Fold this sequence. Notes:
Shape: elongated
Helix content: over 70%
Largest sheet: none
Order of helices and strands: HHHHHHHHHHHHHHH
Protein name: Calcium homeostasis modulator 1
Strand content: under 5%
Organism: Characodon lateralis
Family: Belongs to the CALHM family.
Keywords: Ion channel, Ion transport, Membrane, Transmembrane, Transmembrane helix, Transport
Number of helices: 15
Distance between the termini: 94 Å
Membrane topology: Multi-pass membrane protein
Amino acid sequence: MDKFRMMFQFLQSNQESFMNGICGIMALASAQMYSTFEFSCPCMPEYNYTYGIGLLLIPPIWFFMLGFVLNNNVSVLAEEWKRPTGERLKDPTILRYMFCSITQRSLIAPALWVSVTLMDGKSFLCAFSTNLDIEKFGNSSFIKEMSETERTRLLARIPCEDLFEHKELRVAATRYIKCISQACGWIFLLMITFTAFLIRAIRPCFTQAAFLKTKYWSHYIDIERKMFDETCKEHAKSFAKVCIHQYFENISGEMQSLHHHHSGKDGGGDEEEDKRSDEERLLGIRAQDDMNKVLWNWHTCKPALALRKDQMDDKNNSKLTGKINEAFNGFANGHTHGTEKKEWAVYYSKV
């Protein structure tokens, strides 16, 4: 369990690497699913095109949606988009950056599925076998005697080896369509690679300040949500612990006092320290209504992103103020508390 917990904490702290790993796993899963998938073309003119194009497009759409489902930033994006403005304004560029980042990762597995499908050519053959000009592939004199409906049914059987009698025509037609399918696959890969190259090459040409700003605040939103969830979890744990302790103290006071009498020498100090730490973790919120109000205010009116230095240096300022007051009171009373006295010697000379 400790190993799994350490692994989970590592993945949480390195969410970007974790999401890249998930995208890689999904891409490998898409290729493995296609290799294990049993392709069965219906070999009917009414369903060949639907089956072939559906096999080419529907699984990528499913992988694309699955990429959004597995990405934790989708909920962060939705919350940031739908939250009330309050004291913190919404920045559309941050929302666009987060959406583009999620979309880029979700497109990896669909792109791999389309590429593998086009390179294999089976779905392309099933979808477009009825559009072939069979006379180009050998002796097709028997087709001239057929009606248009019979010819369409015959061409629809080309993907099915058991149903098409003329082997030479089938092999030639299959190679022709697979060649076109592979050409489309390479064009698709070239377009994707060229688009990624343009994105990487053009982005440095624009100002980096806007990009760094959107990247920083998108990371901030994600980290803020995680820290808020962790703080709420710690507060709930401390709240439950204090509530349970108070319940048992009120119900069984005598048993509690007897327990303190027997174990007060052994761990009384530790128990008091635990209670003190739990009280500090409550942060002054000790009622259900107060906690509900805090959570509601956090949702409806998040604090502005402007930290005040006086709150951060409150302790240092209080210490400095105390020293100044002590020195002032000492001079007012005719003595200095702990201040060093300096002696001055004056010499007069008669000329």
